[in-house]
Design a protein that fits this description.
This protein is about 20% helix and about 25% strand. By secondary structure, it is α+β, with helices and mostly antiparallel strands. It is globular. Residues about 1-40, about 475-480 and about 495-510 have low confidence and may be disordered.
């Protein structure tokens, strides 16, 4: 193959699996060449005005969008706004010119960054962390104030060791009320003290601070496998997997989870992707191959197809743009040297239930899209996010041999996450377009319900088990459980394939 090495896709299946081809010599991080890639002429040596660093960033962004961007033709006239002679803020310009229709932003995800390593680490589940994820809501009787509620804690992380658990409510940070000015301190500081309250159900409000919990961030891998267990329903074994990110390291852990499912005789699977915003296509294809009918996996059937812009389609006319099921997976890059044979790990799942929310995006949606033609899939929850395109993480070194006179000495740490293709199933269909995949059974993520993930009383799992035939033993129908206050996940780093959010939630507000 003579295309650029598909390093990373936060979207669902843009690239061929690494089993289909070894990494070619044109890996953007290896400094190799891309001889058949067309270039967009630009000569930074003739520019004046912005600093050298910004001029180099302008040229890098201009060429990345002009060559690889899925909507390159649609924004062609806007690329002049990245002229290295005049553009002083390429990060803002890239965000401004990414594809719109009638002033409505279609592409929410393409982003230029001056810290590619941090962006990549966030997708790999690496870096300093408190080991939790949070949702936020507004406080009705305190204008401009917010509360946070724990969605989950990561095994062996600071939050778990500090005694935090799903459903814990935070109303102060370092002794201060939570506002727009400090809400991200809950993720971004090295040390934080949280004021913990609890929900008073009979009054439908949040109580005062009851205890203080101090956490110190640690540098760790957040294992995206939060829960893997089995249940027996009507005489059949049902597996349950809470999976939060398609990161590379979990390529080593997922096969063992499914070997255990197979050993326990699991026939149906509840896959919980409610918080999964995407990750690597390699991991997505591996998980799909663990779930799909083994006959299709062994035959190497088409898992997904993809479409690029006209420029790349013509340049890569001899390429195979399909992604295939496989029994073997390899990944070499960075600190990883992964080789997995999963031929003994597929349990033969007859029916798949997938728990999703508006936070289920990108590779989560791609997994569903790719599996739908092959098996019985029931979606439970709320409509998915609607990230139907795939992106590359690209570094400036990708362009050093294809842009005349290009120097990236000042922007070696920069990078761009650029949308490059649309994914679809083997027949070219993509129900994630344009606004996400609708569900079959409605249910709501309710961290106020008092149950931990994996507990059969937890709202969304309860609904999934009911769909699988379990009797409803609760006092209320499973699908009726929804949070008493409107909640939104807090986007930090690069979750769900989108940028950090600048607006804050609180359409339906709690009171203290």
């Amino acid at each position: 193959m003579k295309s650029i090495y598909r390093l990373l896709s936060i979207a669902a299946a843009a690239a061929a699996c690494l089993t289909a081809c070894d990494p070619p010599a044109d890996d953007p991080f290896s400094g190799g060449e891309t001889p058949e890639t067309p270039t967009r002429p630009s000569n930074p040596s003739e520019t004046t005005g912005p600093t050298t660093q910004i001029r180099q960033a302008d040229v890098f962004a201009q060429n990345a969008l002009g060559i690889y961007y899925l909507w390159a033709k649609e924004i062609d006239s806007d690329l002049d706004q990245l002229s290295p002679s005049t553009c002083t803020d390429p990060v803002s310009v890239v965000r401004k010119i990414r594809y719109h229709v009638d002033n409505k932003e279609v592409d929410h995800w393409t982003v230029l960054t001056d810290d590619l390593k941090s962006m990549t680490n966030s997708v790999e589940g690496l870096g300093l962390t408190f080991g939790y994820d949070l949702q936020a809501g507004g406080i009705s009787n305190r204008t401009g104030e917010y509360f946070l509620i724990v969605s989950y804690v990561v095994k062996d992380g600071p939050a778990e060791k500090g005694g935090l658990k799903r459903g814990d409510i935070i109303i102060t940070i370092d002794g201060n009320a939570i506002t727009a000015s400090n809400i991200y301190d809950a993720f971004n500081k090295d040390k934080v003290t949280l004021g913990i309250a609890h929900y008073i159900a009979d009054q439908n409000q949040i109580g005062p601070v009851e205890k203080q919990v101090t956490l110190e961030a640690v540098d760790m891998w957040e294992n995206p496998v939060l829960v893997d267990t089995t249940y027996e329903v009507q005489g059949k074994k049902i597996g349950y997997l809470v999976y939060n990110s398609f990161d590379i390291k979990s390529m080593e852990t997922l096969p063992q989870v499914f070997r255990e499912f197979k050993a326990k005789g699991v026939e149906e699977l509840i896959l919980d992707l409610r918080y999964n915003g995407g990750g690597y296509v390699n991991t997505e294809c591996e998980l799909a191959s663990l779930i799909a009918p083994y006959s299709s996996v062994a035959a190497g059937d088409v898992f997904q197809t993809e479409v690029y812009n006209d420029l790349l389609t013509n340049a890569w006319k001899d390429e195979d743009f399909n992604t295939y099921f496989s029994t073997t997976f390899e990944y070499q890059g960075g600190d990883y040297n992964i080789s997995e044979d999963i031929s003994d790990a597929n349990p033969g799942i007859s029916k798949l239930y997938v728990i999703v929310t508006g936070s289920s995006a990108s590779a989560s949606e791609g997994l569903i899209v790719g599996l739908l033609p092959y098996m019985n899939v029931t979606l439970i929850g709320t409509q998915t996010y609607g990230k139907y395109c795939a992106g590359y993480m690209m570094s400036p070194s990708s362009f050093k041999d294809i842009i005349p006179n290009f120097s990236y000495s000042q922007i070696a740490d920069w990078g761009i996450y650029v949308m490059v293709s649309k994914f679809a199933d083997k027949n070219g269909n993509n129900p994630a377009m344009p606004d996400g995949i609708p569900v079959n059974i409605e249910a709501y993520d309710d961290p106020f319900d008092g149950y931990q993930l994996g507990d059969t009383g937890e709202s969304m799992l309860k609904t999934a088990l009911s769909a699988a035939g379990a009797p409803d033993t609760g006092t209320r129908a499973a699908h009726a459980s929804r949070p008493p206050f409107e909640l939104e996940m807090i986007d930090h780093d690069v979750p769900r394939g989108v940028l950090i959010k600048t607006d804050l939630p609180g359409r339906v507000k709690a009171s203290l």
